[in-house]
Amino acid sequence: MLDADIDYLRRAFEERLWASLHAIRALGNRLSKDGSIVFISGCLADRPNAHGTAVIAAASAAMEALARGLALELAPIRVNTLSPGPIDTPIFSKALGEGRDAYVRAWEQVLPLHRIGSAAEAGAATVFLMANTFMNGATLNIDGGARLV
Known about the structure:
Blueprint: H1 6-27, E1 36-40, H2 54-73, E2 78-84, E3 87-88, H3 90-96, H4 100-110, E4 117-118, H5 119-131, E5 139-142
Parallel strand pairs: 1-2, 2-5, 3-4
Helix pairs in contact: 1-2
């Protein structure tokens, strides 16, 4: 963080927090009163690390706080957050490149389930948050226990 360009760090909040607020504002009154909004945060919100992720962790935690506040402000529209841990998606492979396999093996060693999650599992958790009409202001962790280790 000490050496990073502030504009680069600011993008974590722009891409997560402000983009979400702009989208909700753009929808305005077109949001169905029995609708559901699901934000995506990340396990860094609960368990930051020492690998240059402090600002991303803060942006993830901000998404969860925003969801709780909007769950009250936008009610009866429901607002929840999905907090994924290591999930195998195309962007996961693209971001890690040749280091992907070593990264996955390292997670498999420490995660209680000894594997990373799938995009289908994260998608099913998102559908659950959207479909369960009694979920509101909640954060659903889908991280294979990453926040515990």
